[in-house]
Specification:
The protein has 77 residues and is mainly α. Helices cover 74% and strands 0% of the residues. The protein has three helices and no strands.
């Protein structure tokens, strides 16, 4: 596959990307997990129906699990 010719805009974008790549990696992260397709489709349908984002879903799930853990800790004390 041939590389497209370099234009001033493409050169500028590459230069900018090199500058901010490490900073972006420090600030953001991905889980990169795999889930069964049926569950994936179910989650996507839910998100589309409710208008929630995947980030909101992860945050809500995380908060729910933290609360569950706190409740579990209270009952074992």
């Amino acid at each position: 596959m041939e590389r497209r010719e370099d234009t001033p805009v493409r050169i500028a974008r590459r230069k900018y990307e090199e500058k901010v790549k490490e900073k972006r990696r420090e600030i953001n992260a991905t889980f990169g997990t795999m889930i069964p397709r049926t569950l994936f489709n179910e989650i996507n349908a839910f998100l589309k129906e409710t208008g929630f984002t995947k980030v909101q879903l992860v945050k809500a799930g995380y908060n729910a699990l933290l609360e569950e853990k706190e409740q579990l800790n209270k009952t074992t004390e």
